[in-house]
Amino acid sequence: MGSTDDQSCTAVVPEHQGPAGRRQAIAQYVIANGGVRVEDLAGSIGVSAMTIYRDVAALEQAGVVRLDRGVVNALATSLNEADAEFRLEQDQEVKQAMGEVVASRIPQGSSVMIDDSTSALWALRALKDHHPLTVITTSLLVANEARQQPGVRLLVAGGEYEPWAHAVMGPTAAANLRSWHADFCILSASGIVGTRCQHPRENAVQVKQAMIASSAKRFLMVDHTKFTRHALHTFAELSDFDAVVIDHATSRAVRSSIADQGVEVIVA
Description:
By secondary structure, this protein is of the alpha/beta class. The chain folds into 2 domains: 61 residues, Orthogonal Bundle (Arc Repressor Mutant, subunit A); 183 residues, Rossmann fold (3-Layer(aba) Sandwich). The protein is built from 10 helices and 15 strands. The strands form 4 sheets. The protein has a 7-stranded parallel sheet, sandwiched between helices. The protein has a 3-stranded antiparallel sheet with strand order 1-3-2. Helix 1 packs across helix 3 and helix 8 packs parallel to helix 9. The longest helix has 16 residues. The protein is globular. It starts with 17 loop residues before the first helix and ends with a strand. 44% of the residues are buried.
């Protein structure tokens, strides 16, 4: 557990963001500093301890943090993934930029497989004017967005529902996906170790592998933070993708390493 007597950064919450922005700030602060006392969070963010307790309860439910004897610790690890709705609000500008880059490579009339990752959901948002479009997914968040877009044909794979991902996963979903074939797939990873793309959940790995096998061209969307994380299961090699979309903060060494795999590197 990290020291809480001298915190190394200050949480800044734009006033217009309200509780959602405050909870993002709490999560980022705890991840950056290690274990943080509730009282220190209250002082840093400028709200009461009672407000912090309410926010932490919401973050616990999302699988982001854990409260233990008045100390808040980050929970998302190599064995766990935070709730999808929470992740959707993180780093929105970066995800939007990467999504727009991917969308620019997908012509009208295409069929696209989209996994449960929030980065890929931003790519769907950028495809709103690319109809007609066929969207194949296991994610209820993706499906809900796709059904509101005109000119989109929506196919949703069946399987076991996973609340943390707001998606169906496992062997049934994978079998459904393998019965289809798409022009493109858009995926993300929880972490990248060397050339290996990783995820903490085996049932999610099955879905990602099925999408890769069932698509003609494959995009991987990962920001720079993914290259400092690892997870339990490997679902692909970087060389399994035609292009890897990264953000500007990704180091030149990482960019070169990806290019060495014979994969196109696209910087958003």
